[in-house]
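Running this now, will post back.
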Amino acid sequence: MRILMISGSRNPDGKTARTGNALLDGASEAGAKTEKIFLPAMRIEHCRQCRNTGWGLCADEGKCVIGDDFACVFEKIKAADVVIFATPVYLWEISESLSAFCSRMRRICFHCGKHDTVGTKPAVGLAVAGGGGSGALRTLFQLEQILLFSGFNVVDMYPVRRQNLEAKLPQLRIAGQWLATSVGCH
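Update: finished.
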C-alpha cells in the first residue's frame, strides 16, 4: 500500500504539515509506505493554454508540454494507491501552489473527454484554516470538485481549524489507519 500526500503548504512544519503527518503516521502504523511532496518546493508552472483553443497536448494525448516538475509528481500520483491533497486555507481557497498543480492535473486527467488517467483512484482532501478558522469547508468543496472532475474517487474530506487542531490530530491518525487498511484495498 502506497499513500502519497501532495501538500500545498509553504511551511513544512506548520498546521497543514502536522495534520497531514497525522494521516501519514496512522497509515504507516497500519503498514503503508508513505511519501510527502511539498509543492512550493517544486518547480510547477501555471498552465499556458498552449493553443488558441486554450488546450494543448493535454486535450489530445493527456500530456503537458511544460518541462517542469509536474510530470514527476503526476507519475507519483499514478503509482500511489491513495492520494491525500492537503492545503492551508488562503482566502477561503486552496493554496496557490496546489491551484497551479490542480489546473494542469485536471487537463491531463480529462483529455479527450475521458477520465482514464487516474481511474477511480481513492483520494482525500485536507484543508487547514488558521487565523479566524473559517473557510475550511468551502475550501474542501472547491478541492472536491477538482478531484471529482479529474476522476478521483473522493473517499473523505477533513476540515481542520486552528481552534480544533489538537482535537483533530488523533482522529486523523485513526483516519490514516483506515486509509491504509480499508480504502486502498478496494
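The first strand starts at residue 2 and ends at 7. More later if anyone needs it.
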